[in-house]
Design a protein that fits this description.
This protein is an alpha+beta fold. The protein is 36% helix and 27% strand. The chain is elongated, with a radius of gyration of 20 Å. The N and C termini lie far apart (54 Å).
Length: 259
Amino acid sequence: RDAVDADSSLVVSLAGGRIGSGEGPAVVVTRVVEALQAGVSKIAAFIATNEVAAARLPAWVAEASSLRVRFAPGSLRIGITPEVPQLTIDNPVPLADQALERFVSAENWAQRGLPDAMLDEMLPHPVLRRQVLLRVKEVAPRVQGAYRTVELSGVVVRGEERLALTAVAYEHARSYLNRRSRESVTFKGKLVSIDVEKNRFDLRVGEERIHCAVPANLRQKAMDSIDEVVEVEGEGIFQEEGEIPELLVVRDIRDLVTA
């Protein structure tokens, strides 16, 4: 063990392929670190607010879930620690570490090829699951990728000292995303009309826009709710790489009271 092992919540070790002793393509290292940060931030937002961050993260969540990296000398080992050690919610573990632990659990689920129900319990929102699995895919090795294995170790790796990821994790995550291309979802946002005559609507969620298919029995409700903040429930149809649905087949539109 060295200082990186001793001081890091998570240590990520890359090996094989284009990874040498203490060196590797910058784009690969950047992609892994950015995927970890993105996945951790999305999980942290859900832990702290019990809502999915479909758009921009709250500033305080972004700060509390920010990660710091350090590199072990002579190897391609990346130490990951919370950037902000101070707690922002009532829990003895920093928010970033809570999110890191759940992210590692999702990687473990993917590597072991575990049932969908276990992931659904671990990440209890369909959009959150997609947000996390897209980053699980980015961290996990691919058959013809730049590295062959990823080893995760550290205090957030529960139940075993080290978790070795192979292309199995990538394929299991990808398979889940394709199998679950239709999910029941609910979003809050501003309803806008893009074609009044054809009854075509979008739901604006932060900077994102979700196309909505509104059935005949709800079209008047949609018209009355244009430019209002509403909660829309329905079946989301997702592309494999999509965090939010490409199309939302609307089942209900509910008014929200805004201050």
